[in-house]
Amino acid sequence: MTARLSATLLPPLPSAATIRPGDEPVMVQVPQGGSVREGSSEVSLHVEEAGSYRIDARSPDADHDAELQLIRDGALLQSDADAGDGTDARIVRALEPGDYRVRVHDYANRSGTLLVQAVPE
Length: 121
Hints:
Elements: E1 15-19, E2 26-30, E3 40-47, E4 51-58, E5 66-72, E6 75-80, E7 89-95, E8 98-106, E9 112-120
Parallel strand pairs: 1-3
Antiparallel strand pairs: 2-9, 3-8, 4-7, 4-9, 5-6, 5-8
């Protein structure tokens, strides 16, 4: 048996907002989709100083099960579904200065609003 595999790096999604650690949470509209990518929105994250940061994604009305992914230069660094309170997503990790993408979506790929925030730990 011979198997062939090919992969295509998809371009980043358009940024719905830009956040910096310590900013107030931003409201992000996530679309309904048939897949995680189709049901996702992305936020640009700019980090100026190396350190430990917490990135949260949560539903303001608890109607959605938030999930998030942290991406840099097209590579997935970390993902989370429920490390925050209840069904909130949370990533805590050391980050170097630079630009990152935070992709958020509802677990069931439903449309809705999610709050996204990054804070120094």
